[in-house]
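hey m, so remember when u said the tokens were messed up on ur end? i reran from scratch. heres the input so u can diff it against urs
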Amino acid sequence: MSHKDLKKNAQTKPDASRRKFLSGAAAATTGAALIGFPMIAKGQAGPISMRWQSTWPSKDIFHEYALDYAKKVNDMTGGDLKIEVLPAGAVVPAFGLLDAVSKGTLDGGHGVLVYHYGKQNALALWGSSPAFGMDANMLLSWHKYGGGKELLQKLYQSIGANVVSFPYGPMPTQPLGWFKKRIDKWEDFKGLKYRTVGISIDLFTAMGAAVNALPGGEIVPAIDRGLLDAAEFNNATSDRILGFPDVSKICMLQSYHQNAEQFEIMFNKTKYDALPAKIKAIIALAVEAASADMSWKAIDRYSQDYIELQAKDKVKFYKTPPSVLQKQLEVFDQVLAKRSADNPMFKEIADSQRKYAERAVKWEQDTVVSRTMAYNYYFGKKPAAKKA
């Protein structure tokens, strides 16, 4: 189906469904209509259909997460709200999701806030920074309980985005990326043609890389054609599915550039505001249910593919040297100062995150016992017994 046909269907399908229902419901009594559609608001004609798009290829586990959320909503509403999710590029390019949802070309979508970096660079603070030591779950805690939700609403209003946003789905720390040779020092980034997104563009540019921001599905072909020397994306499962081990056999683990990212579920605000209150409540609760389920699925799938990448794809993993991690923090301070001076909203959001991180990270560091000690005790190599 052509791009033009998809757009036409997205605009005509809900209207056609509504006319069909109205013709069949004309003879129904008011009482019967209420019994048949208990979730539908007064005056609403039948089930509500929404057409969404993700920012991921259909084969990626990230698109699977989008489908998981849609199924939860569809099931929990008993079919009163039906969300259909298309893959990246079906209607608009991955980086065009915000505009498409805001204008109503799409009813909603699934992506990440850092993909809207070009609209307002402060959006990238929901994912592409060291987050002052917070992990992604802490950042979501800040969003819900530390003022982040209100700041995000204010930010979207400031750029005229007609959307309702639900960040969810905490991601594990992302790798530094895939390279032709191991990164031993930060200077190895000088002149490197490297893919990343969000504030990480500023970070790695300041470290000397020639940065190119590409959607997930375009990265491996760009490496294969020599347009990129190296790239980061996200996790063992996505990286394996997208074909990274076909173009590189070296992956550097651990980085501060995106150690606290999460996904974003987005609705067109006009269409969301018109929904019945009960469906809005289901949408919000489904976000939290999907967030937990995504976290659990990620642990299961990523750990399996981490083994497969080594055993079957012969990938060698290395931990990023501490000197490179330290340099990332130092450079991010420079980026933070520059962006804060240029953008008052950037400063307001960063200051709010820093304040929350100071107590949240301190609490976690003092409270959570080391998993390294326990892992080494149960699974590490034990010293050989001394001979008598």
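this time it looks ok to me. The first helix runs from residue 3 to 25. if urs says something different then somethings off w ur setup not the seq
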